[in-house]
Amino acid sequence: MVATSVHGKRLTDCARGKSGEVAYFLNDIIAGKLMAMGVLPGSQIALVRQSPLGDSLYVQADNQILALRKAEAACIVMK
Amino acid sequence: MHCDEVRPIPGAASVDRKLSVALLGNPNSGKSSIFNQLTGLRQKVGNFPGVTVDKKTGYIPVDAHTTIKITDFPGTYSFYPHSEDERIVVSTFSHPGDENYPDAVVYVADVTKLEKHLLLFSQLMDLGLPVVLALNMSDIARKEGLEIDTERLRTQLGVPVLAISGRTGDGIPALKNLLSSWAHSLPVARTSFYQPSPQEKQLIKPIQQLFQGVSDYQALLTAHHYQWLPHLKAKEQEAVEEIVKEHHFQSVRSQVEETMLRYDRFTPIVRQAIRQGSAKRNSMTQKLDAVITHSFAGPIIFFGLMLLVFQAIYAWAAVPMDWIESGFTALSQGIKTILPAGWWTDLLTDGLLAGLGGIMVFIPQIAILFFLISLLEEVGYMARAVFLFDRIMQVFGLNGRSVVALISGGACAIPAIMSTRTIGHWRERLITILVTPLISCSARIPVYTVLIGFVVPPGKVAGIFNLQGLAFMGLYLLGIAGALLSALVFKWILKSREHSFLLLELPEYRLPVMRNIGMTVWEKVKTFAIEAGQVILVIALLLWALASFGPPGQMEAAEAAALKMATEQHLSEHQTKGLVAAERLEASFAGCLGKLIEPAIRPLGFDWKIGIALITSFAAREVFVGTMATIYSLGDVDDEPSVRQRMAQERNPATGELVYTRATSFSLLLFYVFAMMCMSTLAVVKRETKSWKWPIVQFTFMTALAYLSSLVVYQLLK
Questions:
Q1: What is the pLDDT of residues B22-76, one digit of tens each?
Q2: Are B211 and B219 within 8 A, CB to CB?
């Protein structure tokens, strides 16, 4: 669920518009906050687009839309 | 024994009973809308995380002796807080002795996203409070074809469950009935939801011995949050720390595991109770966002919208502002003709009424701005603007949300500062509040108009661009640059223990509920008129007194001398009146003050007369033109062209040189670009930051910035 070494693709490395399943998170604090907002291991998540300077990401997670910073999205590892 | 089923309500023995109910839920749960429906009091509904900053309270009367007090808490995702707002919730609910600790809780959840909304609910169930689960947005759920088995949820979760809608009012009477019955006999809360791990259990026991009457989960929360919980005394904090260290308790780790276990338990319950419909969800939002949050089209749409807002504030507010101004002028002249002349008539008209007028005149701008901003919030646009600009604003220590405040500041800093409440991060909000008044507001326009001609000659560049128009734009850009650079400095000085997150939920676009917008506008206007108004009124009265009274005998002497001079020079009645007013002002305390500060402002190229204008301008910049009119004895004339004409003729009595040289005028312009000369803004900053510290800091840094830039420009140009 939470690990220190990466076995899989991070959300930031995923192709745009392609939905995948969350495997685990790399950072416990971000994990806590994401899970409180309903993003869990097993959630379907897709990177939809970037903000003008590219640091903010528009993400579809299950049936809701989230805005994440790149650093935050890089903590999400996909199956 | 049946008596176990109910417990007496605090104060039930006395004649009047009061049930204290907390309204709790995630951001975007529509909680504030339910609050409006329940109490009819003014409150803001958030399509935007972090709207409910202050504690809002409302009352529902049950019968002659019973009332229900409802407190609306800030939207929170869990009892593991990430902002000051969420901390308020945790510090209240983890401490049964807290003054806001409720008797019961209405938990509001968005039924279309029930799973994630149940996390905080499940935490709440472990506190031992009676809870009702209110499934909000039930009207939207029906449209989307969601089938909800409320009976199943009730038996599985063990609490009353009601389908309601803050939008249509469905289910509100049922909720009120339930609360009324609780006001007479409160049910005992059922068992807890979460089974603590063996390690957590080892912590809970000794902490419960420290704090009488806390539930297992409250003890666990104390172990997580002892470092900042405000009710803990230093001794208690040490004791908890010892327990936590002894058991090698890892707070973040344990929090993540607890959250997982909670989801594991309630997710199957939700899946069984809710059947997804076939209707495609949020497809409309997806289509709109493809354009609105597009990396190229998005910013264009944003600036287009802001231009519209700005335009609306200028164009629509001008007419009612004129009415208010002329209304107050007419009223004050009417009173002057009815009442006999005397200092108390002056006090009533020039002090009290002028002060009141100064407050009221801002109301149209505030109302229009808040109408448009809450409209954008209600439909869900604001969160998109935050998404678009978060990165750029971060560079300056600000937040995506700051963009809205900075642009509103172009109309008036007061509503702009009030709109920063949507910024959750305290440092980012504070910096936004501190730098917003550097954006040139509408009150600077008359000052710029009068002075710009002394600096830049009329004429055109490249045949098209009006030179003075360009200078005008330059002053605005100077203000923006000043705001962003000061923000950088504050970012460097101020430290924050809050981790800055974006992690923002973008709600679905929804049609606005006009009632909610109306309540927001009403609340903002009322707050401004009453709270900021009190301070403005005091300052206006003080200024009036300073300009109307002088050291004993001085003003009378000045008036006699002026009258004598007028007779000698055969001045007309109108000119005489003007001369008398000017001489009296010079002899007044305000005049004395002008002379007193003259040595300090001399290096900027200002004389004592400009000094008086500066002093009066500290109440409000727009006073500048009127003060100039009085000083240069123009009588009642205070339109900009005549003031300008008179100023152009003004010469230094000692040297015979023109006073308004290019250097002095430039210096004065810069002073008005940067200086904090608006008492109303300072009053609002005090209210929003809840201390005098920040308005003082703001006043000091802006005045220093103004002084230094004026000094440099004058010394270079003279």
A1: 999 998 898 888 998 898 754 543 332 333 345 678 888 888 888 898 988 888 9
A2: yes
DSSP readout, B613-648? HHHHHTTBTTHHHHHHHHHTT-TT---HHHHHHHHH
The token pair that represents B230 in the structure block:
């405000």
Q: Higher-confidence residue: B290 or B635? A: B290
B12 pLDDT more than 50:
no
Contact A51 B282 (CB under 8 A): no
> Does the CB of A4 have a partner CB in chain B at under 8 Å?
no
Q: How far is A30 from chain B (nearest CA, A)?
A: 9
Q: What is the Cα gyration radius of chain B?
A: 31
- Please state the pTM of the whole predicted model: 0.79
Q: Which residues of B555-570 are buried (b: 16+ CB within 10 A; e: fewer)?
A: beebbeebeeebeeee
The CA distance from B431 to the nearest CA of chain A, in Å, is: 21
pLDDT (tens digit per residue) in B506-559: 999 988 988 888 887 887 787 777 766 776 677 667 777 888 888 888 888 888
The A residues from 19 to 48 touching B (CB cutoff 8 Å) are: 28-38, 40, 48
Per-residue pLDDT of B666-709, as tens digits, reads 999 999 999 998 888 888 898 778 789 999 999 999 999 999 99
Strand partners, B25: B108
pLDDT band at B638 (very low <50, low <70, confident <90, very high): low
Q: Say whether residue A59 is in contact with chain B using an 8 A CB cutoff.
A: no
Of B78, B289, B391, the CB nearest to A56: B391
For residue range B593-607, what is the model confidence (pLDDT) as tens digits? Answer: 989 999 999 999 998
The widest CA-to-CA distance across chain B, in whole angstroms, is 103
Which among B253, B503, B507 is the nearest to A68, CB-wise? Answer: B503
Q: What is the pLDDT of residue B153?
A: 95
Strand A44-50 to B56-63 pairing: unpaired
- B75 at A interface, C-beta within 8 A: no
**Contact of B604 with B707, CB cutoff 8 Å:** yes
* Digit-coded pLDDT (tens) for B331-350: 888 888 888 888 888 778 77
Q: What's the farthest any 2 CA atoms get from each other in chain A?
A: 32
Burial track B250-272 (b if 16+ CB lie within 10 A, e otherwise): ebeebbbbbbbebbeebeebbee
Structure tokens at B153: 């949820």
Interface touch B285/A52, C-beta < 8 Å: no
Q: Any chain A CB within 8 A of the CB of B115? A: yes
CB of B513 within 8 Å of any CB in chain A? Answer: no
Question: For residue B72, which of B111, B48, B41, B112 has the smallest C-alpha distance?
Answer: B41
Percent of chain B topping pLDDT 70: 90
Q: Mean pLDDT score of chain B, rounded to an integer?
A: 84
CB contact under 8 A, B260 and A53: no
C-alpha to C-alpha distances, B153 to B114, B138, B293, B514, B715, nearest whole angstrom: 11, 15, 37, 32, 76
Decide if A53 touches B, using CB distance below 8 A: yes
Closest CA to A52 of B385, B285, B304, B307: B385
The interface predicted TM-score of the complex, written ipTM, equals 0.93
Rounded CA-CA distance A49/B292 in Å is 12
Question: Where would I find the H helices in B185-282?
Answer: 198-210, 216-225, 234-246, 251-273
- Closest-CA distance of chain A to residue B185, Å: 34
What DSSP letter does each residue of B261-313 carry, written as one string? HHHHHHHHHHHHHEE--SSPPSHHHHHHHHHHT-TTHHHHHHHHHHHHHHHHH
